[in-house]
Amino acid sequence: MPCEILEIRFPIDQVQYWADRFSFPRTDEHLIAQNNLIQQQRYFTKEQLLALCRWKSPRAAPKAEINEDEFIREVSRISLATENERLRIEVLTLLSGVSWPIASAILHFYVSNSYPILDVRALWSLQCVIRGNYQYNVNLWNRYVNYCRAKATEAGVSVRILDKALWQYSKEHQRINNDEGG
């Protein structure tokens, strides 16, 4: 298993520094703006799902296109309504094109910004290297959520600021195709 422990690779007092350096080619303001509407609807639409897929992983959007509107509404209703954390994330992976990382972004933007966004760059910055066809699971997810929330609190920042710091640190330090993989 590639993630026996989660431990941040840089001093906690540098979280804001790395977050301030964050540069991602796609903005997330349109996703943040959808939160209130989705909370009122108590589900998300196909267009809202596709917008998130295009932001998180543009390659996933065409796969997500094949989902039927009614199926998206029902799956998202379950995810938004349940108190069961495992069901909340795993039900989203029933949608074509929705991997664990995309499901985590759905939870972050459409359920609560207290959920971190699962990403191989962020995991690398926590000394968790994902290789090959690794299958994400609820145990890793729960550990990741709890760890990120605790570290964000320790650093005095939001979970999203921590996400950005972890992603940027990896972007600047991770060497692809070396012993640490990616």
Topology (elements, then pairings):
Layout: H1 15-20, H2 29-41, H3 46-56, H4 61-64, H5 69-81, H6 85-90, H7 100-111, H8 120-125, H9 138-155, H10 159-173
Helix pairs in contact: 3-7, 9-10
Short description:
The protein contains ten helices and no strands. The chain is an all-alpha fold and 182 residues long. The chain has one domain (12-21, 28-173).
What does this structure look like?
This protein has 182 residues and is mainly alpha-helical. It has one domain. The protein has ten helices and no strands. The longest helix is centred in the C-terminal third of the chain and has 18 residues. It is globular, with a radius of gyration of 16 Å. The two termini are 15 Å apart. The C terminus is likely disordered.
* CA radius of gyration: 16 Å
Give the uncertain stretches in residue-range form: 177-182
The ordered H/E elements are HHHHHHHHHH
Beta-strand content? under 5%
Number of helices: 10
Average pLDDT figure: 91
Largest sheet: none
Distance between the termini: 15 Å
Query: What global shape is seen?
Result: globular
Comma- or semicolon-separated keywords:
single chain, 182 residues, mainly alpha, 10 helices
